[in-house]
Amino acid sequence: MSTEVRTIADQLLPLFYADLKRVAHRERARVGAGMTLQTTALVHEAYLKLRGSSGWNDDAHFVRAAALAMRHALIDHAVEKLAAKRGGGAEHLPLTDGLDVAAASDETLVALNDALELLSRQSLRLAQVVECRYFAGYDEVATAKALGISERTVRRDWTLARAWLRRELGRA
After folding, report:
1. Residue 77 in 3-state DSSP?
2. Which of 24, 61, 84, 170 is the most buried (most CB within 10 A)?
3. What DSSP character marks residue 31?
4. Going along the chain, which residue ranges are E strands?
């Protein structure tokens, strides 16, 4: 890992911190991470992952890389919670305490990650569109800019990727 990449990450993080916090807050809420994973902690996890990367082409590439790093941090968190849920020293709750809604979200998030990895092997661009639209919260214009493709292609790929993911997640 080069010192230059660390320096660039150190310089870019303050510039995009508000954007990254917004993305992290939305993702945390969407996947049900709740109080177990704070927004700031998610941004910092992403930052640590970014410091170890090989650099970025432009601002959009940096934010997309940060969204991917957040995805990985959320997946890691979900996997840890699921492992704990299956007896990894977790406190067992009585049935009268109700269902663990966040655990269902963790399982869904892990299944989505597995399906997205499979999709990336079949079509990297479709997987990148999903990462930009779903994890980074980009609209069609920002996704097109980040990936260097047309908005029409983004719409087409987004429709195709969502259908493919629905089918794959339905099998799980």
Report:
1. helix
2. 24
3. H
4. none
User: For the chain, how many structural domains are there in total?
Assistant: 1
CA distance 155 to 159: 6
Residue of 75, 73, 66, 72 lying closest to 146 (CA atoms) = 66
pTM for the model: 0.54
How many alpha carbons fall within 13 Å on the CB side of residue 100?
18
Which amino acid is present at 129?
V
* Amino acid found at 92: H
How far apart CA 92 and CA 80 sit, in angstroms, is: 16
What is d(CA 82, CA 7) in angstroms, rounded to the nearest whole number? 36
Give residue-wise pLDDT tens across range 109-139.
Answer: 788 889 999 999 999 999 999 988 887 888 8
d(CA 163, CA 28): 24
Dig out the tokens for 69 from the structure: 């790093």
Of 21, 1, 3, the residue nearest 13 (C-alpha)? 21
Range of the domain at 72: 3-171
